[in-house]
Amino acid sequence: MSRLKTAYFWRRAGLLLIVSGCAVLIVSAANPNTPEGFLVIAHRGASGNEPENTMAAFEEAERLGSDYIEFDVQLSKDRELVVIHDDTVDRTTEHTGPVDEYTLGELEEMDAPAGKTTDTDDEATNLVSFEAVMERFAGKMGMLIEVKESPNEPGVEEKVANVVRQYEFRLNYTAFGQAGSIHGMKKLKNTAAIMIESYDFESTRLIHSLLPDVPVAALIHEDKHPLSDEVLDELTSYAAYINYTQDLLDEEIVKKIHDRNRKVIAWTIQSDEQLVRMKQLGVDGVITDYPG
């Protein structure tokens, strides 16, 4: 009888070990290459201090010790990737018209001060290509890339993926980030180098299929709030992050995302009060115009 009990015990123990091992594999596979700790992400660079989506703003974010810079990419007339938020150049430059009516070379000649007075060298506030940003920052700090207007720009995801692949070695093998603190938060080292986000869920799904090792984020605006459990289940089947507008976030939403073993980043934080509330809710990071 004791032999039977002993055999039963070891069979049960072995089963538990197998189940535990599978659980570990599931959890570890759920968020491939996602960084640990609270992330500070500079919205269009340190855009509270320097003109948005320019080298001046990105370099200021780097100087301030941001974990990531966030920026927007879309296609030019000659189907090259340019870093700009709007679908026209009207707001941020002295020119007018849709972005896709200008070649990349023409766009790179445009100063983009967006109403800001700056002492920075003029060239640092020009519109800039996606590849130039990758060349400057890949392997040095994290980059959160927002794919813009995907339905109107077929092939933009493939373009983004191709550029990211060009820098794969540098992204995978170069450590970046410096020790320090922003608002009392511990800074990170060796965080994931790239994340890609979009309001277009089909775009994020496609990016995930093209770059399965790169975390993708589904952007949630008020027009998609509240997310049903079914939609959240679908999004978290491939998205490592749910990036939510901060004014709609509450404990229930954060818990639902965390219960699905995914992370939530709040945008766009503009004050210390908003930052404190987000930390109290337990979000995994913030996107802010003022990373310093």
Mean pLDDT: 84
The CATH architecture of the largest domain: Alpha-Beta Barrel
Distance between the termini: 69 Å
Number of helices: 10
**Major sheet summary line:** 8 strands, parallel, barrel
Shape: globular
Task: Produce a short descriptive summary.
The protein is an alpha/beta fold.
What would your notes on this structure say?
- The chain is α/β, with parallel strands linked by helices and 292 residues long.
- It has 2 domains: 1-30; 35-288, TIM Barrel.
- Helix content is 36%, strand content 18%.
- It contains 10 helices and 12 strands.
- The protein has helices spanning 2-30, 55-64, 104-108, 130-137, 156-166, 168-173, 201-210, 229-235, 251-259, 272-281, and strands spanning 39-43, 68-75, 81-83, 128-129, 142-147, 181-182, 185-186, 194-198, 216-220, 241-245, 263-269, 285-288.
- The strands form 2 sheets. Strands 1-2-5-8-9-10-11-12 form an 8-stranded parallel barrel, surrounded by 5 helices. Strands 6-7 form a two-stranded antiparallel ribbon.
- Strand 8, helix 7 (201-210) and strand 9 form a beta-alpha-beta unit.
